[in-house]
């Protein structure tokens, strides 16, 4: 599939904005994935190409968080591995079934996330006691990894909620660990999609350039402003993604309400 220079420029700008938001609160797929589909890219190829640009942008955000000392890959290696393995399964399944089967479930989950950050206990700026063992934490992260490989948008918000509510991490550290899990699931999904021949390389690499810039901007903003910026963005992105899914004419909830 050949895209015009104007379309590539549009996708690059969309990826930069998406990566900036994603580095702070997750949910960047709300921007980048619809942008690819608006450019006429078929759904599976759009997910695959989005994995390419997102992997590169997330890698940059990971580097920024790790360099600043907010990420502990040694302690949280098993959740990261679980995200990778789950994403392989999700991306494999995506190439064989209709991903819209998840569309009806996502709005309810995203509303629950928004409610947690709005009405739940205020996130601390320091780590607290971990509420579940590393095994269960890894299992839950693996489930989100599966979702990320299969569908994608909103995975960052799910990761962050698990690391914050159950992992006992501060909001900034939960965001940093989310980037590590996100990177693992993006790479796993990308490799699986590459094997299936679904990636549009020129579009993906152009978007990756924008994603690198946006990821660096977003991660530095998050480290500078912390929970004051991350918490409202998590709420906003969860509600925005919910609205986007519900107004989609193909979403089962939209069909039900319209009928």
From TrEMBL:
Task: Establish whether keyword Transport is in the entry.
Answer: yes
Name its cellular compartments: Cell membrane
- TM helices/strands, residue ranges: 48-66, 78-95, 101-120, 132-151, 157-176, 188-217, 229-247
What GO cellular component term, any one, is given?
A: plasma membrane
The protein's matches in InterPro entries, at most eight in alphabetical order, are given as: TM_pro_TauE-like (IPR002781), TSUP (IPR052017)
Q: What's the chief localization of this chain? A: membrane
Q: State the membrane topology.
A: Multi-pass membrane protein
Q: Which UniProt keywords apply?
A: Cell membrane, Membrane, Transmembrane, Transmembrane helix, Transport
Q: Which domain of life is it from?
A: Bacteria
Entry's family note: Belongs to the 4-toluene sulfonate uptake permease (TSUP) (TC 2.A.102) family.
Q: What is this protein called?
A: Probable membrane transporter protein
């Amino acid at each position: 599939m050949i895209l015009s220079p104007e379309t590539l420029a549009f996708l690059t700008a969309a990826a930069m904005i998406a990566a900036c938001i994603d580095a702070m609160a997750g949910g960047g797929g709300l921007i980048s994935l619809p942008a690819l589909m608006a450019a006429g890219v078929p759904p599976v190829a759009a997910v695959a190409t989005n994995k390419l640009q997102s992997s590169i942008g997330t890698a940059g955000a990971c580097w920024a968080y790790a360099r600043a000392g907010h990420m502990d890959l040694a302690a949280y290696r098993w959740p990261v591995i679980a995200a990778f393995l789950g994403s392989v399964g999700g991306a494999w399944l995506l190439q064989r079934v209709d991903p819209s089967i998840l569309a009806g479930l996502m709005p309810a989950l995203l509303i629950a996330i928004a409610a947690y950050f709005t009405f739940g206990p205020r996130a601390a700026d320091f780590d607290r006691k971990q509420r579940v063992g590393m095994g269960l934490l890894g299992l839950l992260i693996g489930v989100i990894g599966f979702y990320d490989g299969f569908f994608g948008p909103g995975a960052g918000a799910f990761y962050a909620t698990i690391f914050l509510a159950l992992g006992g991490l501060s909001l900034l550290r939960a965001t940093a660990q989310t980037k590590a899990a996100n990177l693992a699931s993006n790479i796993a999904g990308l490799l699986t999609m590459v094997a299936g021949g679904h990636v549009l390389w020129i579009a993906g690499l152009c978007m990756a350039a924008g994603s690198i810039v946006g990821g660096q901007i977003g991660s530095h903003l998050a480290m500078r402003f912390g929970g004051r910026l991350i918490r409202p963005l998590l709420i906003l992105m969860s509600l925005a993604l919910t609205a986007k899914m519900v107004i989609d004419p193909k979403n089962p909830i939209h069909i039900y309400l319209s009928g």
